[in-house]
Write a structure and sequence with these properties.
Layout: H1 9-20, E1 24-34, E2 39-48, H2 53-63, E3 67-75, E4 79-88, E5 97-106, E6 111-113, H3 123-133, E7 136-138, H4 174-177
Parallel strand pairs: 2-5, 6-7
Antiparallel strand pairs: 1-2, 3-4, 4-5
């Protein structure tokens, strides 16, 4: 851990804007409440030029080595968006910030450099994005499939929304072909809840419906 003093979320954003200028395409800060006491926490969202991904992560390491969470992704149509989610200042009295770097890859060039030389723990998430989105992580130290079996068709990416996504014929309706015998036992059906019997109304005690002297309440 380096000795960079704690920075506020606006100070973090200002550092990035000063360092990368027009390469920062969008930056915003959102506030969240954590736990029963709704302790304040902050999310910093920075969308940047894809060429600045590794320099931006290096800059974050200079501020404070981050806790890597995951690389999320989304098929936007003509582009694949990758979100590198991590946090800094964990365990400090001022609280940690969640920082997300977003880049977009055009489907005509779905390459992105590995960040495992900076954060080795990102490897599994990079492998997952390769097989589910069809991106190419250059210089990835281990590019094997992670979740998909070896006999899964090449060129099919389950998280893509275009023609390279899951084909309709690959989706099997288990109810129509009977449940495979090697699957876990289905859950026990819920028991029907018995109907409640109506409760008979209890007549009001005589004398409470009328005030003294005969006036109705």
């Amino acid at each position: 851990m380096n000795g960079t003093p704690h920075l506020t979320p606006p100070q973090v954003v200002d550092l990035y804007k000063a360092e990368f200028g027009a390469g920062i395409l969008d930056a915003r800060i959102t506030e969240r409440g954590e736990g029963a006491k709704k302790t304040k926490g902050y999310n910093i969202w920075i969308r940047l030029d894809r060429k600045l991904l590794k320099p931006a992560i290096k800059k974050l390491i200079d501020i404070r080595f981050p806790h890597f969470a995951v690389i999320a992704g989304n098929d936007l149509g003509d582009e694949i968006e990758l979100l590198y989610i991590m946090s800094v200042f964990y365990g400090t009295k001022f609280g940690e910030y969640m920082i997300t770097f977003g880049i977009r890859l055009p489907k005509t060039d779905l390459t992105v450099p590995t960040i495992t030389d900076l954060i080795p723990g990102a490897l599994l998430s990079e492998r997952e994005k390769q097989e589910f989105f069809g991106i190419t992580v250059t210089d990835i130290p281990d590019g094997r499939r992670l979740f998909l079996p070896d006999d899964f068709p090449q060129g099919v990416y389950p998280w893509r929304k275009d023609e390279t996504g899951i084909k309709p014929e690959m989706v099997r309706e288990l109810w129509a072909i009977n449940r495979p015998k090697d699957r876990p036992v289905p859950p026990v059906p819920e028991k029907p809840v018995p109907e409640k019997k109506p409760v008979a109304e209890v007549p009001a005690a005589e004398g409470k419906e009328k005030k003294a002297g005969g006036a109705a309440e």
